[in-house]
Amino acid sequence: MMYTLTIVSFGEQREDATPEARGSIVMRGITKAYGATIANDSVDFELRPGEIHALLGENGAGKTTLMNILFGLVAQDEGEIVIGGEPVRFASPHDALARGIGMVHQQFMLVQNFTVAENVVLGAISKWNMAFRRAEVERGVQETAERYGLAVVAGQRIRELPVDAQQRVEILKLLYRGATILILDEPTSFLGPAQVDRLFGTLKELRDTGHSIVIVTHKLREVMAVADRVTVLKKGRNVVTAERGSFDERMLAVAMTGRDLLALPPRTKAHLDEAALFRVRDLVVHGARALHAVHGVSFDIHAGEILGIAGVEGNGQRELVDSIAGIIKVESGTVVLDGQELTGVSPQRLHAAGVSIIPEDRRVWGLVLDMTVAENLALAQIPGGDFSQRGILRWRDVRMRARELLELYDVRPADPDVPVISLSGGNQQKVVLARELARDPKLLIAAHPTHGLDVGATEYVHRRLLEVRESGSAVMLVSHDLDELLKLSDRVLVLFRGRVRYEAPVSELSMDEMAMAMAGTGGGAADAELAHVGAGGDPAT
Amino acid sequence: MDPADARPLDEPKPRPLTAVGLLARGIAAPSRDRLRSVGWTVISAAATAGVVAAILALLGANPATAFRALVSGALGNEFNFGQTVMITTLLALTGLAAAIPFSARLWNVGGEGQMYFGAFCAAGLGLTLPASLPHWFFAPLVLVLSALGGAVWGLIPGALKALINANEVIVSLMSVFAAILLADYAITVIWPQGIAPQTQDAPANTLLPNIWSGTLVTAGAPVALFCVLVAWVIMARTRLGFEIRAVGLNPFASRLNGMRVGRIAVYAFMLGGAFAGAAGAIAVVGIYGNLPTDFSGNFGFLGIAVALLARLSPLWILPSAFFFAILRVGSNGLQVATGLSPSVGEIIVATFVILLLAFRVIRLRYAEAAQ
Amino acid sequence: MSATQTTFALGISLMAPILWAALGELIVEQSGVLNIGIEGVMLIGAFVSAIGYHFVGSLYVGLLAAIGSGLACGLVLSILYVRLGTDQIVTGILFNVFALGFTTTLYTKYLGGGVSNAFGNLHIPGLSSIPWLGPILFDQNFLVYAAILAAPLVYYLVHRTWFGLYARAAAENPRAVESAGLDVWRLRYPAVVLGCMLTAVGGATIVLSTSGGFVAGLTSGRGYIALAVVVLARWNPYGAVLGSVLFGVAEALQFQVQNLGFLSKIPSDFVLMFPYIVTVVAVVFALGSRYPAACGIPFRPSAKSA
Fold first, then answer.
1. What is the dihedral of CA B124, B129, B135, B139, to 10 degrees?
2. Residue A101: beta bridge partners?
3. What CATH number is given to the structural domain containing B168?
4. Cβ <8 Å between B304 and C93
5. B253–A379 CB contact, under 8 Å
6. What are B28-71's pLDDT values in tens digits?
7. Contact in structure between C193 and C71 (CB atoms under 8 Å)
8. Which residues numbered 18-37 in B keep a CB inside 8 Å of some CB on A?
9. Cβ contact (<8 Å) for A124 and C180?
10. Chain B residue with minimum CA distance to A388
């Protein structure tokens, strides 16, 4: 099982030159603890000039913490950072930026109401007393964008841009300030395959013009595609650092997880011969922004079937889920579950009709973090009138039920009385699963159910979703993670700009067509639309 | 790694959960932190007392003299103590008027107006309903209807918030000024009492009986106690209370789990308004016997301080109200001893609470949850 | 002058305090802080200007003293709101209670019943003789003109300077500002202090525009009305001018009731209620006017929160 390839761990470099002499950024012995949890345990990391360095690890391995330390957002407890032989200590991102280090966070740091140019110059000019000349600034930003081949329009507002264009703005922000070291935290989370290729193309060009780039990721394929070197973290510690040529997917998987690649679980056939359990017809929803609307989406889900909904972030997935969930208004169309029309009904009636939802962001939509586990497990039942007798709640029953569920869903600690905020992300999600699955839903809507979970918890969630499918319910699974979609779904549907662009059973799926559908290419009409919006295409050049 | 995800699993101590335990959790920190937090509280309280003393000194009063005058003004004899009890009554009710909407993350800063409107209703009902109604029926009727009046006044910001998401801070503040002018209209135009700035006296069989001879303590005090217990039951033991807390801590998850956020906002505001309205009624039929101009020493606003010091927990409202009543009534004693206006009470109370906020002794749980 | 003209002329002059306060609040809110304590700052500004005049005898000293008091209030409030991150709504309300107690106590002690003096009206030659409009707009005291001229300056500050750009970003997404290497706190401190100074001038304007002097609780909700004006104006300084005029005129009605036939039957208490009712209506009509995304939420820098 152990791979003993030419792994070059830090400290035994093949070259004669020291890291300092190469002008590298060196992080040595970095340790950072949050309470009792150690995020980084004496981690070493070297970034050489002009390389793309992948920082690989599972969720919770401490990758982001390490990079936040390098960017001055978080202060390390121990360890040193040396740049070109000189020890540095960053008190804030300001100091890091002054050293040419910039970071693109997984969650973009953009002011939605501002234009591209306004976002790009944010913080780049420190003469506060000067007048802000919009036209001049926009011209400068546009020139910089063109110099680096980044397709953005300086005068557009961020909230009108699709997610890949927003990412280009983030990169442009750093380049405009002259950053030569770019840290990208999970840059492909919200991108489709075509956009990932394009991003990697940009990164390689930047590397060739002398920039150093760190990609924080948990996806092996990306490391293989773009990295010159890779450092693997596991549970806050270094595992290996290896150069291109001396690593492969399998070896990295073992290094990252301590196990070999996982096999797909077995499954039964869906009841495709029967009438569809859940039907959506011509659903139209006006999103908060024009880009995010849903324009007449139709699909069926059969009993015992998982329908995967793929698409680049912000192509109507959230609005689709929210409108079915009764959170935002349905303009037209119908939603029918098991013969019962549920178009635009309240969450309470949805529950009664047998719909369960694992919402996109469990901390915002799933749980009341400051309430106890027991209270969260009863969150939907109490408004439905359960557990109360003439208006008085029976806490004893609430807690008894909670204890049962905690055991059934293996939540740790199995204590109904602790605030749910004290649980780990995986256990929080188990609380959501327990609440939503315990009522035996006919339809389960799961939006990004494994986002931010570690591998163990992710597997647990997958197993539960497949159980729901086996029990004969319909499952609608929305995810950015193509691997997850392909692993779990029976059928996959691609949303682009609020329309269904591709639909196929997983067994007959063409990856190319799917990638093209996600990018919105492959149809004349879509290209025209792209050019019009000017963000996905190359408007200026 | 998300630091919030990295919370250790063993931190909060599991504790058997009863209804009382459930409430206590809102009050007491886990025991390991308690010592540290007690120490911090002591330091903060000392610093706060120091700042208040400095302000008194700046105003030209000897802090020691002022302190003695304050304590004896509030607690020095039976009569003064009775005064403090009655102000505790009002502050406990206006404290509830703030605490319940605050629990739903709704800023009812209009308790003052809801109290004024309750007082207006009490005076008006007493003077217009037939005076022949029996005492046992008339007095409670006035109380209940005035509380309803307060609820209606609270309904204005609550309903506008629920229907069109109107800023409840501005609307509830405006309702304060409107209610004060309405009370003024009652005093000067509808039921004037000669030249005195007050309405005609309420009929004797609307008045709450004195229950402690030698003082001005009336049945209003036990009524407030009862209200506190009702509020506690609502918040800890009913579906509505649960929903109010859930919406306050996370409106999004509450909504997705089937709570009607708008309706809960209306109920929370009406509950708050009802308690403030009861305070106004008790002031009229339980303290003054009529509706005087400026009868409120900003009691509605001080209720916010009461609610905060009680950390929005209904049972802690009583000690908190008593504490602020001491400061407020005691400041009347300052006038004799130091020549300062009774308004000095507002300075003391506001400084006190602002500093406790600054020292993070008082915290709003959902405000932290947002970060 | 006709009664209507007098009402409008009075309305313009009564607009000035609200406009100063609204412009101040606008700057504060455009940096991401919600200053409910605006009422207290106004009250303190009014009181201090009266004290300044009372002891020195110069209106200008009164005005300068008020600006100084705004600076002091701004420093205190910015430490509370920004550095200590206390809840802004609660802190603001309590600050107002403090200000009411503070000014009332000192008023009884030092000022009791003292009258003030007022800045005289400046007739603007030519313009003031425009028929009908002239006497309304161009026969006012200098604090009124200054308030109107301050609007474009505030617009320039907020929308045409780097500071304004950064401050607005801090009001929308402070994390992004931090990530861009800027210090959110250092953007908010000056905004709160400057805003409070303008607000205090608003309070002083009430005292220095009439000879009535200071009385306890003088501002009677004008600060809160200014809060509504900012919402109604959708954070646009020019909109704030129009909004303030609306409230100035609503307030002016109380002095003109007896001259305006159609109003003379309404009891004075209800006429006095008018501005407050208009405020509620304005808030209702400002439907869809959204506070900057991070307005009112204390910001804690990442490096300091761990």
1. -30
2. A181
3. 1.10.3470
4. yes
5. yes
6. 334 455 566 777 778 888 888 899 889 888 888 888 888 888 88
7. yes
8. 18-19, 21-22, 25
9. yes
10. B239
Query: Span B268-296, mean pLDDT?
Result: 95
Q: Could you tell me if residue B243 is inside a domain?
A: yes
| Angle, helices B261-282/B239-249, rounded to nearest 10 degrees | 110
Q: What is the CB neighbour count within 10 angstroms for residue B337?
A: 17
| Chain C partners within 8 Å of A110 (Cβ) | 173, 176
What's the pLDDT tens digit per position in A375-403? Answer: 999 999 998 888 988 889 999 999 999 99
Q: Tokens representing A329?
A: 């208004």
For B318-351, write each residue's pLDDT tens digit: 999 999 999 888 888 887 777 888 888 888 889 9
Kindly determine whether residue A122 and residue C173, on different chains, have CB atoms separated by under 8 Å. Answer: no
Per-residue pLDDT at A271: 65
Which among A97, A111, A127 is the nearest to C172, CB-wise?
Answer: A111
B:C CB pairs within 8 Å: 144
The neighbours of chain C, by the rule of 3 or more Cβ pairs under 8 Å, are: A, B
CB of A340 within 8 Å of a chain B CB? The answer is: no
pLDDT digits (tens, 9 = 90+) for B197-255: 899 899 999 999 999 888 889 999 999 999 999 999 999 999 999 999 999 999 999 99
Cis peptide before C17 (omega within 30 of 0): no
Work out the angle between the directed axes of helices B344-358 and B299-309 (0-180°, nearest 10). Answer: 30
Partner B, chain A 313-332, Cβ-Cβ below 8 Å: 325, 327
Number of domains in chain B: 1
**pLDDT per residue over C184-193, tens digit each?**
999 999 999 9
ipTM of the complex: 0.90
Tokens matching residue A40: 């980084």
Is B127 inside any structural domain?
A: yes
**Are A369 and B237 in contact (CB < 8 Å)?**
no
B245 touches chain A (CB under 8 A): yes
Enumerate residues 6+ apart whose C-beta is below 8 A from C158: C26, C27, C30, C164, C167, C168, C237
- With CA atoms as reference, report the closest residue to C241 among C180, C122, C143, C150: C150
Of B166, B173, B345, which is closest to C101 when you measure between CB atoms? B345
Let me know: does B159 contact B169? Beta carbons within 8 Å. Answer: no
Tell me the nearest-neighbour CA distance from A175 into chain C, angstroms: 12
Burial class (CB in 10 A: 0-12, 13-18, 19+), B74: buried
Query: In this structure, are residues B20 and B315 in contact, taking their beta carbons and an 8 Å threshold?
Result: no
Give φ, ψ of A208 to 5 degrees.
Answer: -70, -20
Q: Which amino acid is at C30?
A: Q
Asked if residue A525 has pLDDT above 50, the reply is: no
- Selecting from B185, B304, B344 the residue whose C-beta is nearest the C-beta of C267 gives B185
User: Cβ separation of B9 and A65 shorter than 8 Å?
Assistant: no
Please indicate whether, in this complex, the C-beta atoms of B174 and C298 are within 8 angstroms of each other.
Answer: no
Q: Please give the Cα distance from A156 to A148 (Å, whole number).
A: 18
Residue of C76, C105, C232, C247 to mutate when probing chain B, most B C-beta within 10 A: C105
pLDDT score for A260: 55
Strand A52-56 relative to strand A212-217, pairing: parallel
Element containing residue C83 per DSSP (H, E): none
Taking the CA of residue B249 and the nearest CA in chain A, the distance in Å comes to 6
**Residue A30, helix vs strand vs coil:** strand
Q: Which domains does chain C have, with CATH numbers?
A: 3-116+141-294 (1.10.3470.10)
Q: By C-alpha distance, which of B110, B160, B170 is closest to B262?
A: B160
| B19 located within any domain | no
Confirm whether B136 is domain-assigned. yes
Q: Helices B63-75 and B78-103 sit at what angle, rounded to 10 degrees?
A: 90
pLDDT in tens, C122-157: 888 877 778 878 778 888 888 999 999 999 999 999
The boundaries of the domain holding residue B324 are 36-54+64-370
